[in-house]
Each structure stands twice: as structure tokens, then as C-alpha cells.
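Appendix C reproduces, verbatim, an entry submitted by the partner laboratory led by Prof. M.T., so that reviewers can inspect both the input and the predicted structure.
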Amino acid sequence: MECMLVEIVYIFLMVFNECFAPSASAFIGASGRALYADSSNNGQPQPSSNCPLPNTIPGQTIDPEKITGTWYAYSVWQTNITQAAVDASGITNYINYFTSFGKSHYPTTDVPASVIQQELAYSINGTCLTSIEASHISTDGRQLGTAYDLSTTPETASIDQSVVIATDYTSYILFYTCANYKASTGICGDPQLSVLTRKLPPALSTDERSIISTAVISAIKPYCTIDFKDFVPYGAWTTTQPMCQPTSGAGSSCYPTLLAAYNSTVFTS
């Protein structure tokens, strides 16, 4: 197991060093990390005193295989995201496609995991844009992956380190990401909470919305008091813009090699 991990890390580093072009945008990963920045503060994180989330939050015990399938971006809370920034982005029809390639182990640990490919597709002014990610998602809810934004030239890459802190598999999933660890305080300097739903957001009934918001707030309650009204939609849902489909990494010079490295950790027997 140790030798396999060393080999995978080596392959990963070769691919990452060759292809990595750090993005200047807020893009981090297909799990729902936002594509928006609040220009009123030059895109910098706002103080999170109203919801001082810790650097790390324990994940929910999950079956990673059950989170595969289609998810729709519903709402997001982050200290530097405002409704105005979302509206200005022009993003519509933000969809996540999750595919499993088999069972593995979370890197450097013996915790069971699955190799999950996440494809994010969305539309801006009628143009379909995509990103794609390979990651390990563990049974204790942790996610570690590398995402490529295929809408940029050259393609930009970023590390996605998130945790699933709540899901019922059939209606919602809640991811937590800390993009700015503060070791001195233990409080995250740039936290984000991302909610995805199985059903298209416009089709959610009032009761379904209430169930989701109650579950999300309940999951966050041990750490801070926040109202679901403080979350903002990921973007508009409209029939006048395309429902973009995943590309499976088409056009990427880097992703196939990266995915092969992840897939080499999958159990074959």
C-alpha cells in the first residue's frame, strides 16, 4: 500500500508540475467552489465573524458510490460572495456530474474511498464552459482532488480539498471548503458552504426547500449561527440558455494522464 501511494504521488506531481497553470479566478473545483468574486472588496475574503467556521470540520460518514449521478448547484455561502457578484457573473444552469471509477483508499491513509470524476458544466451568455476533476472521496466525507478549468487557455488547475458534512443522497449534499487555513486561531479565513440538489432548483417545492435549508443549518449549528437567507443562488436557471453537457476532459492535454494516476489506485479484485 505504501509503495502504491508513493508511485501515485510521483505520477501526480509529474502531471501537476507539467500542466499546472494557477488560476487567478475564484475557481477551485467541481464540488461547487464558486466562480465569483465580490469586486466591492477586490475579491478578497470578508471577515467571517458572523460565522467563524473552523479550519476543518468532520465529514459525515458516507458511501461515496451513492453520491454519483447528477447534482444541480443550488446555493452558496462564502464571505466574499454577494448576490450582486453572482448576478454580474452571468452564470446560468450550473450542473455537476459525478462518476465513480471504483473503490480505492484515501491518499496516505487506509480509509476506504472511491475515485470520483466530477464534471462541472455551466453557461455564460449562451456559451458552454466546463471544468473537470479527479478526486478521492472517502467514507469519512473527505475529498482531495485536482480540477482543470477547460474554459481557459492554457487550462488552469487547482487543488480541491473539501468535505461532505451533510447529505441524504437523494435530495441534497453540503460541501465545506476552507481556502485559507489560520493555524493561529483555528478559524478559517475564507470558508465556503456549497449546497447541491438532485432536483432542478426551480422545480423544488416549498416543502423540499424547507427540508434542505433545515438540514443545512442543522449541520452548521455546532459551529456558528447562520440563516439560510444568507446563502445566495449559484446563478440563474433559465430555458433561454443551454443545459450544457460534460466533456469528459475532451480537449485537455493534462487530464487523461491525471485520471490514469487516480485510477491506478482502484482495487482490481
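The chain has one domain: 2-263. Additional entries are available on request from the coordinating office.
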